[in-house]
């Protein structure tokens, strides 16, 4: 863990990031993520993404607010960064009879903003992050082989996350902060009569927290841990049974799981950093989505997800003149059993590769990262639950996602 060398006092400098404009941008952005992480969005910074998101034991830039809030004690003075994550999620479906469908591949922007302030001669550091830790957005089109199960759906989830970190000793820090979460949800599917359909729109808020620790017992090795609590958003809005009934007040809830990350960073020389992280998500607590107040009773969406791991590895090489280059890989386990599979979250085992580069200057930093995700030959689903018209989601799903993240930061 680097010790602070020159600190600056600027107590109010990071507070302006909580302005309504930026939060509204995050909350109104359509997040499109179709992968084995279900509706988690773990990609929150290009420097971390370039390393396969293996960053919990390094966490030495302002995005540590998300990856490990204890890491902000490594930052001197005031450090502010802004980034945009643009993701395109593509899944193609083929049934046993040859019927096909595919999602659109439009790139959608997801903004991120972080700010850290370390007062001069203090053991404490303070941070504020605004980002989207969850998100989902897929559109299979109105005419598809399973349209009574899924047409399109969007979940927008924005978080404001103030944190405080304490450098208890020269080698050990802890950090913690509340999360203030706002979400919007939209879901549509067909009903088994001509022109029929179900359309729900709603929003809600909830609160949680995240915490972390970092320990560097020697110059060459550091350990990091991060925990984020579960939240549950109760969405209040309205639904419409198209072609059957007028709009009615409707509510439904989605549980967002807790997750924990353990990481180890090894730095054999000052120019190399290798890190491995084990990332666990408690999907077992995500069981179903039920709607109340619909014009006619509708069955709950049974999910019964299973908890799983992401195995993340990354390497960074420092280059002359304060440039760096990184590469990473992570493998994410499938969390959705065939028996409750729904195409609105086309989950599968997934391989993700990444690369990125950037520059760390005295006042300005920038970074760019690219990653792709694939499930190889695809996932074959058998025994999925039938929809109202007897349709099932059985078939093969091939996924290929791409994303680019860029960020810029300044220090004073």
CATH superfamily: Outer membrane protein transport protein (OMPP1/FadL/TodX)
Q: What strand order characterises the main sheet? A: 1-3-4-5-6-7-8-11-12-16-17-18-19-21
Low-confidence stretches: 1-36
Strand percent estimate: over 45%
Number of strands: 21
Order of helices and strands: HHHEEEEEEEEEEEEEEEEEEEEE
Q: Which class in CATH terms?
A: Mainly Beta
Radius of gyration: 22 Å
- As for the number of domains, it is 1
Which properties best describe this structure?
412 residues; mainly beta; two-stranded antiparallel ribbon; 54% strand; elongated
How does this model look, in words?
This protein has 412 residues and is mainly beta. It has one domain: Outer membrane protein transport protein (OMPP1/FadL/TodX) (Porin). The chain is built from three helices and 21 strands. The strands form two sheets. It has a 14-stranded antiparallel β-barrel with strand order 1-3-4-5-6-7-8-11-12-16-17-18-19-21. Strands 13-15 form a two-stranded antiparallel sheet. The longest helix has 9 residues.
């Amino acid at each position: 863990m680097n010790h602070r060398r020159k600190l600056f006092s600027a107590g109010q400098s990071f507070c302006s990031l909580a302005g309504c404009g930026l939060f509204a941008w995050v909350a109104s952005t359509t997040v499109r993520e179709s992968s084995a992480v279900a509706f988690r969005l773990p990609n929150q910074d290009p420097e971390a993404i370039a390393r396969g998101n293996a960053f919990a034991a390094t966490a030495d830039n302002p995005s540590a607010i998300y990856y490990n809030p204890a890491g902000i004690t490594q930052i001197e003075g005031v450090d502010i960064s802004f980034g945009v994550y643009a993701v395109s999620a593509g899944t193609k479906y083929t049934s046993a009879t040859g019927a096909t469908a595919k999602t659109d591949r439009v790139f959608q922007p997801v903004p991120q903003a972080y700010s850290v302030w370390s007062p001069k001669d203090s053991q404490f550091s303070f941070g504020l992050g605004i980002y989207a830790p969850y998100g989902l957005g897929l559109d299979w089109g109105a005419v598809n082989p399973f349209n009574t199960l899924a047409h399109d759906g969007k979940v927008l989830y924005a978080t404001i996350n103030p944190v405080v970190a304490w450098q208890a000793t020269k080698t050990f820090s802890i950090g913690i902060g509340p999360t203030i979460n706002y979400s919007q949800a939209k879901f549509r599917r067909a009903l088994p009569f001509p022109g029929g359909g179900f359309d729900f729109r709603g929003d809600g808020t909830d609160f949680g927290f995240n915490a972390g620790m970092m320990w560097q017992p020697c110059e060459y090795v550091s350990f990091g841990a991060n925990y984020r609590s579960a939240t549950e958003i109760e969405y209040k809005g309205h639904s419409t049974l198209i072609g059957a009934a007028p709009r009615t007040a409707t509510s439904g809830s989605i549980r967002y799981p807790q997750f924990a990350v353990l990481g180890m960073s090894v730095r054999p020389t000052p120019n190399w950093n290798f890190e491995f992280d084990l990332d666990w998500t408690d999907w077992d607590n995500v069981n179903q989505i039920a709607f109340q107040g619909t014009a006619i009773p509708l069955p709950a969406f049974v999910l019964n997800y299973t908890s799983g791991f992401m195995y993340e590895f990354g390497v960074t090489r420092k280059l002359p003149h304060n440039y760096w280059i990184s590469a990473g890989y992570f493998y994410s386990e499938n969390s959705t059993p065939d028996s409750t599979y729904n195409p609105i979250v086309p989950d599968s085992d997934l391989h993700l590769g990444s690369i990125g580069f950037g520059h760390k200057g005295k006042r300005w930093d920038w970074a760019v990262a690219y990653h792709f995700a694939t499930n190889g030959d695809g996932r074959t689903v058998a025994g999925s639950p039938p929809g109202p018209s007897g349709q099932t989601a059985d078939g093969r799903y091939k996924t290929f996602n791409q994303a680019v993240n860029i960020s810029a930061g300044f220090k004073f």
